[in-house]
Amino acid sequence: MSAGNTAVSAVEARLADLGITLPEVAPPVASYVPAVVTGSYVYTSGQLPFIKGKLPASGKVGAADGGVDAETAASLAATCAVNALAAIKSQIGDLDRITRIVKVVGFVASDPSFTGQPAVINGASDLLGAVLGDAGVHARSAVGVAVLPLDSPVEVELLAEFV
Q: Is 1 helix (H, G, I), strand (E, B) or coil?
């Protein structure tokens, strides 16, 4: 492969094998940046499940009155992880430089009776494992919250170590 920008990283190739194209970084919806590098770490801001600039679903997970079901929310959490990888790439240039996803923090806008937050955030964790292998194994928090920005059902942030 050439040293230019036309080379596809192994991580992006695995994404492509899953039918996923790394998107452009979503512009911030408030006063922050999508990712910050300090030392050998990249911290992403919370990523919403934007697809082509739009939320594909909104509302509370597990709500009886037409909210988002847990399976859909897990898929949206995977989308959040893909968006976080895009933010990481914008800072380090090549996702193959990731040596470890250190921590995942997932937020689930939950109906008060919903307790399946870990299963929802498995969507992000499973995606990271599938595309990064052992480097995708991480510590994690899965937190239920009352509401998220733009009425998103999920939000995910990552801490990644790189070389």
A: coil
